[in-house]
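ok, trying the design again with the full structure, not the truncated one.
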């Protein structure tokens, strides 16, 4: 019987020789569709070595050990820059679990240099869905043998009416510290409505109390029965990977019961191990994931993507990558963009390499000095400025990749070279369909060279300041990855009606992919990365920002600050507000036309403050606060930092509230308002010394960067870890510890802090010295742009400067 419905997920079948896809029909019924599918390993090398390897793999002991079904010679594309196919050995396996062990065996057999292995570590679900052409959450048809898509377009405008529930456990803990041994007191399962998904036809709520059952066994059976009755498609938790499901596994083993949270027969168990990763200077701890068969488990506490883009954003990325939603929910945005690259490579017929083996091009020291630079920063002008406009390039780095045709295979091609001309460069259209048509026209209508005889071509783009160019004939692989994402995000931004709605969540999830795609071009292990592509993108970004600054200055604007892809400009011609608004739009349009990348209006600030550096007094690169007339935009100051206590953050926020509500003098908050901030700050510090500030309001959160044994400096974080260990609890590297400083100078390190789990306490108060210093730094960040110093905060007020007297003399003269 044929079944048409929505593709929920796919996973390996129990015997690991088939794949099972779960299809939810229009009545809400889920169907398991199991079909045979073989995994293939591709090996490249010389013909002689491949023939010897094929003979070796036919040995009976290897066939049995790795479940080798067949081996055969074939041809395939191995590199993006080569359209020619090369001979490869295709090894078909009967069991998915033997893929990586066999790859390691073959690599060792070839002494780690004779063979290049492909198709090893792409996720099986992604490879399977790519093979059959079905994207998650799209309409599919199951005919009893094969699954196929109903509609060719994979990206949906509205997601299916899946039944989504929130699952939550409550515990009784004697020590205050979370543990899998804590007694379960109740389990809650409730249908929820998620943004972007059509409401489910089901709505149920269950609350199972432990004290309503005679034994642990009957309580767990009641939880299982409730889950079976509700029969959700998606289970959403906050802490399911870290606490709920490890605890349920523990108590089910204790009671001798087997929990099944999926629709299959698999017992509840951890699917991946916990690990600590290092990303962009941060140490992060990933808890082991619990994946379910036939259902999606989304843990908000273990998913950056869900925190930033919600469930709607997660499902959007799953459709782009052809990957299981519960798998990519635990991945970083960089890993998702890598998955999309692998999916496109598979669509192109290019084998995905297991290990990157492309080295950096040889450069002289002088070439390296010019090439190895990042984006451009223009030092800010410290102080408070009135009537400032912020303009921002939309997805600058991804747009550079698309419009400048930057990709590993298009750099310094052998078919063309830049022409010597004074005419402006011709960029690739940003829209993916127009770009595709443009390159088709070039291949058909225009002449190119080959090999040793490249021809000058006006559309071959020279990289500014570097001895590199990009190809005019072939559209780059990376451009074909990012251009559809840029266009899709533009469409979603046009459809959003309010901040935080489903369209906003989906475009925000795409934003994080586009942010990380640039960094992946220079990542040493990126399969489709190349450091020269990273350098070319940075070179174009510097050129674009310099061009924008020059055009703004020519148009009568002072550029107060610029950071890579955005500029803050202030009128120098005394324009009226209406004229200023029109001229800003005109400037943005002119820059967009010249650069080929949209320059968009971001904010108009009645006033904005750029902080001076605490070290040298010059402008800080990334520390500022501004008032848009409706809300604040802050970067780099305490209320933006996750580690700041609530009391300090609220203190800083109140300071901004006072300034924004006060009358303006010459377009900026008055001196009286600044003194009002000072008085408010001193009252709060007085409250601190009186002991009326609660411990809960002074909690500090710190991310743990290493194990406690690795700490050399006995910091407050070390003191918190030491105190946790003394109570029998370990905070892993990458985790967070939350504590209150009670005595920063205590001789015993563990007595300097109290952990959040120990609160409330009757005999402890926040450390007055520590929090007074933190409050002073927070208020300094508000008043320093006006000319205040730390010493003036401690004395009678604002310190007068020589320029104040000279200005007064000129005004009276």
């Amino acid at each position: 019987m044929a079944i048409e419905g929505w593709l929920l997920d796919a996973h390996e079948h129990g015997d690991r020789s088939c794949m099972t896809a779960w299809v939810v029909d229009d009545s809400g019924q889920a169907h398991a569709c199991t079909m045979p599918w073989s995994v293939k390993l591709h090996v490249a090398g010389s013909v002689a070595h491949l023939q010897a390897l094929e003979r070796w793999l036919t040995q009976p002991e290897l066939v049995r050990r790795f479940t080798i079904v067949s081996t055969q010679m074939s041809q395939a594309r191995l590199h993006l820059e080569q359209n020619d196919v090369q001979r490869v050995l295709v090894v078909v396996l009967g069991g998915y679990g033997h893929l990586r062990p066999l790859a390691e065996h073959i690599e060792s057999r070839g002494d780690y240099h004779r063979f290049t292995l492909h198709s090893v570590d792409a996720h099986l679900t992604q490879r399977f869905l790519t093979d059959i052409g079905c994207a998650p959450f799209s309409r599919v048809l199951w005919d009893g043998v094969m699954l196929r898509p109903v509609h060719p377009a994979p990206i949906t405008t509205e997601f299916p009416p899946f039944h989504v529930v929130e699952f939550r456990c409550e515990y009784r803990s004697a020590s205050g510290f979370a543990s899998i041994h804590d007694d379960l007191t109740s389990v809650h399962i409730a249908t929820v409505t998620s943004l972007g998904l059509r409401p489910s036809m089901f709505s149920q709520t269950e609350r199972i109390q432990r004290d309503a059952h005679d034994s642990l066994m009957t309580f767990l059976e009641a939880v299982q029965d409730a889950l079976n009755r509700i029969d959700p498609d998606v289970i959403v938790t906050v802490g399911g990977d870290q606490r709920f499901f490890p605890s349920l596994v523990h108590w089910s083993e204790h009671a001798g019961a087997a929990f099944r949270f999926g629709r299959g027969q698999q017992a509840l168990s951890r699917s991946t191990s916990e690990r600590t990763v290092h990303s962009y200077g941060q140490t992060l701890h990933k808890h082991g994931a619990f994946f379910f068969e036939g259902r999606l488990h989304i843990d908000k506490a273990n998913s950056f993507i869900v925190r930033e883009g919600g469930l709607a954003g997660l499902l959007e990325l799953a459709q782009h990558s052809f990957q299981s939603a519960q798998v990519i929910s635990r991945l970083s945005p960089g890993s998702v963009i890598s998955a999309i690259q692998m999916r496109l490579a598979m669509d192109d017929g290019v084998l995905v390499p297991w290990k990157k083996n492309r080295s950096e091009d040889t450069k002289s020291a002088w070439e390296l000095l010019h090439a190895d630079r990042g984006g451009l920063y223009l030092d800010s002008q410290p102080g408070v400025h009135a009537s400032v406009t912020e303009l921002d390039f939309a997805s600058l780095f991804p747009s550079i990749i698309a419009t400048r045709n930057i990709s590993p295979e298009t750099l310094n091609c052998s078919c063309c070279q830049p022409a010597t001309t004074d005419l402006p460069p011709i960029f690739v259209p940003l829209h993916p369909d127009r770009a595709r048509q443009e390159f088709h026209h070039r291949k058909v209508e225009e002449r190119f060279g080959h090999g040793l005889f490249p021809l000058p071509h006006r559309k071959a783009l020279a990289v500014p300041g570097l001895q590199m160019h990009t190809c005019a004939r072939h559209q780059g692989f990376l451009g074909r990855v990012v251009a559809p994402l840029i266009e899709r995000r533009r469409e979603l931004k046009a459809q959003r009606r309010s901040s935080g709605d489903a369209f906003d969540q989906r475009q925000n999830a795409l934003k994080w992919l586009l942010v990380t795609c640039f960094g992946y071009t220079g990542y040493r292990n990126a399969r489709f990365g190349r450091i020269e592509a990273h350098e070319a993108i940075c070179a174009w970004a510097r050129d674009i920002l310099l061009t924008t600054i020059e055009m703004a200055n020519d148009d009568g604007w002072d550029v107060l600050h610029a950071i890579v892809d955005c500029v803050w400009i202030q009128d120098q011609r005394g324009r009226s507000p209406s004229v200023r608004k029109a001229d800003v739009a005109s400037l943005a349009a002119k820059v967009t036309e010249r650069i080929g990348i949209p320059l968009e209006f971001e904010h108009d600030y009645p006033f904005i403050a750029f902080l001076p550096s605490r070290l040298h007094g010059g402008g800080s690169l990334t520390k500022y606060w501004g008032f848009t007339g409706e809300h604040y935009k802050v970067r780099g100051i305490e209320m933006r930092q996750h580690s700041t206590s609530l009391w300090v953050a609220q203190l800083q926020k109140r300071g901004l509230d006072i300034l924004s509500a006060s009358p303006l003098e010459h377009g900026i908050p008055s001196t009286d308002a600044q003194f009002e901030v000072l008085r408010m700050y001193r009252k709060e510090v007085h409250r601190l010394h009186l002991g009326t500030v609660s411990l809960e309001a002074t909690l500090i959160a710190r991310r743990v960067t290493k194990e406690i044994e690795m700490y050399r400096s006995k910091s407050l974080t070390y003191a918190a870890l030491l105190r946790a260990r003394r109570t029998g609890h370990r905070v892993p590297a990458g985790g967070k510890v939350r504590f209150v400083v009670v005595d920063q100078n205590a001789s015993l390190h563990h007595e300097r802090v109290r952990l959040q789990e120990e609160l409330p306490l009757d005999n402890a108060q926040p450390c007055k010295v520590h929090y007074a210093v933190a409050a002073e730094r927070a208020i300094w960040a508000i008043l320093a742009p006006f000319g205040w110093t730390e010493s003036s905060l401690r004395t009678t007020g604002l310190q007068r400067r020589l320029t104040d007297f000279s200005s007064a003399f000129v005004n009276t003269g």
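Keeping the full-length input from now on. The first helix runs from residue 47 to 57.
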